[in-house]
């Protein structure tokens, strides 16, 4: 299926690896021009160069700290200068630290709020002027924890749920202007973040990482962890003109692990 993304202008945050990189590659494969960012400038510039050469699209990488409103503002200005408009925006950020409620101090909460919630607020507000003329698509990457909270991830459980509320609210406010906003929630997708979480849980439970993975897979009807490319395919569709009537929704890419209706 042609997603009609050829020549569209897309911005993907936290795209030097993992889910962000996979989404960026899927968009490039469909012909979209890219502006990518990450805290690791060398890594994201390398990804941009690889995708640009592989798919024949314009792709630029730059260093941006999503906890900084000034740097997000700079990213928006770069997109305005390079593209003049933005058709697709992916709000993605690394997950906050694991920990129980009583183990986390206020500094951890404030930092996570800046990176994982306020970054989305600032990104969607900043890019709105570049979408309002022609409409656009926004996808935020959250977590299956918005449906079923994950033990030991109180920061993620709290902030990801806030993102869903924001996207739902904006889908109503911005729908008349042709801007569609959706949330994609990964389950257990094979990324560096998941290795970190499995390792932390193995340490807490005093078992091996392999035992943790085996126990987790038992709860996944498809019997395996997902691949970043599988989530990226869903995100690319939602970011494309092919998605013309879905907004304010939450999409779980979890192999069926969420059992709730």
Walk me through the structure:
This protein has one domain: Rossmann fold (3-Layer(aba) Sandwich). The chain is 46% helix and 14% strand. The relative contact order is 0.15. Strands 3-2-1-4-5-6-7 form a seven-stranded parallel sheet, sandwiched between helices. α1 crosses α8 and α3 packs parallel to α4 (106-127). The chain has 261 residues and is an alpha/beta fold. The protein contains eight helices and seven strands, in the order βαβαβαβαβαβαααβ. The protein starts with 8 loop residues before the first strand and ends in an 8-residue tail after the last strand.
SSE topology sketch:
Blueprint: E1 9-12, H1 18-29, E2 33-38, H2 41-55, E3 59-63, H3 69-83, E4 88-91, H4 106-127, E5 136-141, H5 154-174, E6 179-186, H6 192-205, H7 209-217, H8 228-238, E7 250-253
Parallel strand pairs: 1-2, 1-4, 2-3, 4-5, 5-6, 6-7
Helix pairs in contact: 1-2, 1-8, 3-4, 4-5, 6-7
Q: Which keywords apply here?
A:
Rossmann fold, alpha/beta, seven-stranded parallel beta sheet, about 260 residues, 3-oxoacyl-ACP reductase, oxidoreductase, SDR_fam, SDR, 7 strands, oxidoreductase activity
């Amino acid at each position: 299926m042609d997603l009609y993304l050829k020549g569209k202008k897309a911005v993907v945050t936290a795209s030097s690896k993992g889910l962000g990189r996979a989404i960026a590659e899927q968009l490039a494969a469909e012909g979209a021009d890219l502006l990518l960012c990450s805290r690791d400038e060398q890594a994201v510039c390398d990804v941009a160069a690889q995708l640009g050469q592989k798919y024949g699209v314009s792709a630029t990488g730059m260093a941006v700290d999503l906890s900084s409103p000034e740097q997000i503002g700079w990213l928006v200005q770069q997109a305005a200068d390079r593209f003049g408009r933005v058709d697709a925006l992916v709000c993605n950020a690394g997950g906050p630290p694991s920990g129980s409620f009583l183990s986390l101090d206020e500094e951890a909460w404030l930092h996570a709020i800046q990176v994982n919630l306020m970054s989305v607020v600032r990104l969607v507000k900043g890019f709105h002027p570049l979408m309002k003329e022609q409409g656009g698509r926004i996808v935020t990457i959250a977590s299956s924890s918005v449906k079923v909270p994950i033990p030991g991830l109180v920061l993620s459980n709290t902030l990801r749920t806030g993102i869903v509320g924001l996207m739902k609210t904006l889908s109503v406010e911005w729908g008349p202007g042709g801007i569609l906003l959706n949330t994609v929630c990964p389950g257990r997708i094979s990324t560096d973040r998941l290795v970190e979480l499995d390792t932390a849980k193995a340490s807490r439970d005093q078992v091996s990482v392999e035992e943790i993975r085996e126990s987790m897979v038992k709860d996944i009807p498809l019997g395996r962890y997902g691949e970043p490319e599988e989530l990226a395919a869903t995100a690319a569709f939602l970011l494309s003109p092919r998605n013309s009537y879905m907004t304010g929704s939450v999409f779980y890419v979890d192999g069926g692990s969420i059992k709730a209706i």
